[in-house]
Design goal:
The structure holds two protein chains of two kinds.
Chain A (H helix, E strand, L loop, with lengths): L3 E4 L2 E4 L5 E7 L5 E7 L5 E8 L2 E5 L6 E7 L2 E6 L8 E8 L7 E2 L3 E5 L1
Parallel strand pairs in A: 2-11
Antiparallel strand pairs in A: 1-3, 3-8, 4-5, 4-9, 5-6, 7-8, 9-10, 9-11
Chain B lengths: L3 E2 L4 E5 L4 E3 L2 E2 L7 E7 L6 E7 L7 E2 L2 E6 L4 E6 L8 E10 L5 E5 L3 E6 L1
Parallel strand pairs in B: 2-12
Antiparallel strand pairs in B: 1-4, 3-9, 5-6, 5-10, 7-8, 8-9, 10-11, 10-12
Classes of the chains: A mainly beta, B mainly beta.
Chain lengths: ~110, ~120
């Protein structure tokens, strides 16, 4: 009965590769988010979707592309991975932008 | 300028005592929200408490309370009767309307709390 799930939990890959991280929520929420937490634990929002529509698109490289096939899913695709992309990526969801966000367990991405 | 400032990178508290984690914020949005999250060493992010800018009373959730001082733009988290399991990183966050008219969430740099037995 996991509320917000992410796969994979760990991802180790070479520079230049393309990878995807999947996120699913079974809370019936309308809004989903992607965050990046760097090695210093600083957490920064990357994207947010509301009812499959992109509503927050922070300044991130265009190598990062979110895709929301339906309200329950928000996937993150990263092209041409770089060393600086190594971080923990968190997916989150909330009923609306005004409501509390619930986070997934995180995906630790390591780029070698 | 920092939108969310947590000035205490690390703190210690004795078990069963209360502890206050500081958070100050900066926004010109009259309708904003303030959140506290806990991140244990296992890595997950756990929502603790929420305070809306128009809420008249301080938010409370069990042993957690938010000392909201609007004029000072501070939203300190108070944990009463600390437990060993409270040892974690604590993040203060704010929701406001961004320059593009959409909402955005901003997190502080966190405070690492260690509860001593």
């Amino acid at each position: 009965d996991t509320a917000v799930s992410q796969t994979p939990k760990y991802l180790v890959t070479q520079m230049g590769n393309d990878k995807s991280i999947k996120c699913e929520q079974n809370l019936g929420h309308d809004t989903m988010y992607w965050y990046k937490q760097d090695s210093k634990k600083f957490l920064k929002i990357m994207f947010s979707y509301n009812n499959k529509e992109l509503i927050i698109n922070e300044t991130v490289p265009n190598r990062f592309s979110p895709k929301s096939p339906d309200k329950a899913h928000l996937n993150l695709h990263i092209n041409s991975l770089e060393l600086g992309d190594s971080a923990v990526y968190f997916c989150a969801s909330s009923h609306s932008l005004f409501d509390t966000q619930y986070f997934g367990p995180g995906t630790r991405l390591t780029v070698l | 300028a920092q939108k969310i400032t947590q000035t205490q990178p690390g703190m210690f508290v004795q078990e069963k005592e209360a502890v206050t984690l500081d958070c100050t914020y900066d926004t010109s949005d009259p309708s904003y929200g303030l959140f506290w999250y806990k991140q244990p060493s296992s890595g997950e992010m756990i929502f603790l408490i929420y305070q809306g800018s128009y809420d008249q009373q301080n938010a409370t959730e069990g042993r957690y309370s938010l000392n909201f001082q609007k004029a000072r733009k501070s939203a300190n988290l108070v944990i009463s009767a600390s437990q060993l399991g409270d040892s974690a990183m604590y993040f203060c966050a704010m929701r406001e309307v961004g320059t593009s008219g959409t909402y955005k969430y901003i997190f502080g740099t966190g405070t690492r709390l260690k509860v001593l037995a």
